[in-house]
Amino acid sequence: MIIMPTLHCKPGMKLGRSVYSEQRQVLARRGFVLSEGIIRRFHEMGFPFLHVEEEGTEDITPEQAIRDETLIVLHSAIALVMEEASAPGRESLSFETVRFCHDAAAMLVNDLRSRKDPVCLPIHLTTMMQDGGRRQFAEHALNVAVCSTRTAIEAGLPGEELIALAMGAMLHDIGRLRTREGQEGPAALGEDDGAHAEAGYLLLRDSGFPLLAAHCALFHHERMDGSGYPFGVGGARIHEMVQWVGIVDAFDTLVHGRIDGRPMLPHEAIEVLYAGAGTLYDFDKIKRLRDRFALFPVGTVVRLNTGEIGVVSRLHEDNKQRPVVRVFSHADGSRVAKPFELDLKRHLHLMIGSLDGGKAPDPSPACGGAGLKTANVEQQPEKTAAGARREPVTVGPQWRRYWGKDWFQFV
Predict the structure, then answer these.
(1) Rg for the chain (alpha carbons), in Å?
(2) Residue (of 252, 218, 279, 256) closest to 405 by Cα position
(3) Are domains 2-53 and 68-265 of this chain identical in fold?
(4) Of 247, 276, 272, the residue nearest 262 (C-alpha)
(5) How confident is the model at residue 264 (pLDDT cuts 50, 70, 90)?
(6) Burial of residue 293, with CB atoms counted within 10 A of its CB: 0-12 exposed, 13-18 middle, 19 or more buried
(7) What backbone torsions phi and psi does residue 156 show, to the nearest 5 degrees?
(8) Which residues of 115-142 are buried (b: 16+ CB within 10 A; e: fewer)?
(9) Residues 84-128 pLDDT 10s
(10) Distance separating alpha carbons of residues 87 and 152, to the nearest angstrom
């Protein structure tokens, strides 16, 4: 089974996972055979990805971070909060909604506790959402909640605090629906970027959420060196678990291109976070995120720097950044006679150039491939140990409000 962009699916493929309507009704069950019209219709209905069976990948089963039942309940809770939070004149959420969020967070905690493997897996919604902004908001909320809660479990956070953190991580950005930023879509990052943190805090506090949950909304953009917002506090004044919410929020934002619409590859996003390690973020936390997060989960379709297309078939426990890839297409798009596997941990000259089998970006280090523009500084290419030219990378002023700094660089 593979996770494929809907428009890349072909007639005759079978669904590997059921898909649902916004009312959580089954639209098509696992094993449903796709036709050209159905593929087009799924795309129009707001399904960017589908889990499908592909020849040569029958033994590959993408892992799920949580059960489908839990995912549906969490998504329902987020959708309900979004509806109430965006209602004009509403000052707080209903008691029933707060209770529903608590129960959904408890289901998330139980699911993650039952997993033996501590790896963090990204969430792909299999529920119809025609509003792209709402889908992006919901997926971002789920990814931050899953990874932050997984980390808190490892840290030994006690039961009710764990549920409070899960609720706060899930709703950390809810203030966006109550500020001007929400007018451009729930996921937009506007100029007045600090307002949503306070708005989210007030909504959660006044609705009766635990204080830790409300603090996730208030402090997730604060940074260790005090350069964040809305208050510019730093260090030990930021709850350790809220620091995790901020780190995962930044990582998922980079990967999905929520700042300027240009997503980064996961390993590029990790490099950007490393650039702020020791100043913006705690170094050990960035390292743990790198080691625990499945940057390229099993079932992900990738294009290598050689142009070959394949699917991630296996992860290494000690090096999740360089998985095993099963190649099924040549660089020209023709099928290989027999799929074969390449272990990127052994073949160090091979790299993942793009996800979903799309065209690889122009070769450039780290976030250069994401099209980030440099500013405030002119730099000369440096020589690597092998003598090859390597361009230094900077992050320009379009990141100022998000990172709390005009720019930073790493090489």
Answers:
(1) 21
(2) 279
(3) no
(4) 272
(5) confident
(6) buried
(7) 85, 25
(8) eeeebbbbbbbbbbbeeeebbbbbbbbb
(9) 999 988 999 999 999 999 999 999 999 999 987 777 877 766 665
(10) 32
Domain 2-53 = CATH 3.50.50.60: no
Q: What residues contact 156, with CB distance under 8 A and at least 6 apart?
A: none
* 309-316 and 301-304 beta bridge pairing: antiparallel
* Helix H or strand E encompassing 105: helix 95-114
Residues 227/214, Cβ–Cβ less than 8 Å: no
Owner of token pair 């690597």 = 384
The CA–CA distances, whole Å, from 273 to 196, 204, 282, 400, 409 equal: 22, 28, 10, 15, 11
Residue range 127-157, pLDDT digits in tens? 655 566 787 888 899 999 999 999 999 888 9
Report H helices in 256-373.
266-275, 283-292
Residue in 86, 110, 118, 84 with CA at minimum distance from that of residue 98: 84
Per domain, the residue ranges of the chain are: 2-53, 68-265, 373-411
Instruction: Give the pair of three-digit tokens for residue 200.
Output: 């989210």
User: Is residue 48 within 8 Å of residue 129, measured between CB atoms?
Assistant: no
| Pairing relationship of beta strands 319-329 and 309-316 according to DSSP bridges | antiparallel
Indicate the length of the chain as a whole number.
Answer: 411
Q: How many CB atoms lie within 10 A of CB 221?
A: 23
Q: Which tokens belong to 142?
A: 């789920």
List the helix and strand counts (H, then E) for the chain: 11, 14
Q: What is the largest CA-CA distance in the chain?
A: 64
Q: Which two tokens stand for residue 32?
A: 């449903």
Residues 6+ positions from 198 with CB-CB distance below 8 Å: 175, 218, 230
Sign of CA dihedral 200, 202, 205, 211: positive
**3-class secondary structure, 79:** helix
pTM of full prediction above 0.70 = yes
CATH of domain 68-265: 1.10.3210.10
